From TrEMBL:
Binds 1 divalent metal cation per subunit. Keywords: Carbohydrate metabolism, Cobalt, Isomerase, Manganese, Metal-binding, Zinc. Its EC number is 5.1.3.1. The keyword Signal does not apply. The keyword Metal-binding applies. One of its GO terms (molecular function) is metal ion binding. It comes from Ruegeria marina. This is Ribulose-phosphate 3-epimerase.
Length: 229
């Protein structure tokens, strides 16, 4: 997985048909997704439950791009090897999920994955100030995690601060929650390069109407890239 700061659209399969993940993943990739974002929720760190490492391992053969796994679980450390075995390319843990995020990021890299650190809306950019050399991606939550389809919370000041703190390190800034063609330019202008979008990608489409996914992905990408025009 090479590093660049081009805009990447990462559809969240939280908004896909849960009875048809393989076909949904193949459809979004065929329609232009750069990464596939997989939301793991434990019903404890967040008030919702999705799936665990066995399901993620079953997704792996369908993902030809980058499998970006966002853990909304606590604790994280006992499960790192299971997600490495499942084939995650990027494994992101929340800084709020435990007292030892530094150790967690080291363990994620040690298991051969790219390491991400996620920040809830109430957590300041400074929470990752001493983690930047251990981190490949900072995920800025623009909703309170747990559900798709929520209203975007403006975190542009935090994103801009992170971009300044990161400097020339090869660290992605990923935005997660409420990303659509209206909010994408705001976060891209502030310095984000990976845009997770669930409802705004899957809305109106299906595996039988995948061209809608393609249109939705293109609209988000064009809106984000438009800030550089
Ligand atoms: O992690 C989460 C929610 O906790 C996200 O990945 C959502 O799935 C994004 O969904 P939309 O806000 O784009 O519908």
């Amino acid at each position: 997985m090479s590093f660049d700061r081009k805009i990447k659209i990462a559809p969240s399969i939280l908004s896909a048909d849960f009875a048809n993940f393989g076909a949904e993943i193949r459809a979004i990739e065929a329609e232009g997704a750069d990464w596939v974002h997989v939301d793991v929720m434990d019903g404890h760190f967040v008030p919702n439950l999705t799936f665990g490492p066995m399901a993620v391992k079953a997704f792996r053969p369908h993902v030809k791009t980058v499998m970006d796994v966002h853990l909304m679980i606590a604790p994280v450390d006992p499960y790192i090897d299971a997600y490495a075995d499942a084939g995650a390319d990027v494994l992101t843990a929340h800084v709020e999920a435990g007292p030892h995020i530094h150790r967690t990021l080291q363990a994620i890299r040690g298991a051969g994955m790219k390491a991400g650190a996620a920040l809830n809306p109430g957590t300041p950019a400074e929470a990752v100030a001493h983690l930047l050399d251990l981190t490949d991606l900072i995920c800025v939550m623009t909703v309170n995690p747990g559900f798709g389809g929520q209203k975007f919370i403006d975190m542009t000041a935090k994103i801009a601060r992170l971009r300044q703190m990161i400097g020339d390190r090869p660290v992605h800034i990923e935005i997660d929650g409420g990303v659509d063609p209206k909010t994408a330019p705001l976060v891209a202008r502030a310095g984000a390069d990976v845009l997770v979008a669930g409802s705004a990608v899957f809305r109106g489409g299906s595996v039988d109407k995948p061209e809608v996914y393609g249109q939705n992905i293109r609209e988000i990408r064009a809106a984000a890239e438009g800030v550089w025009a």
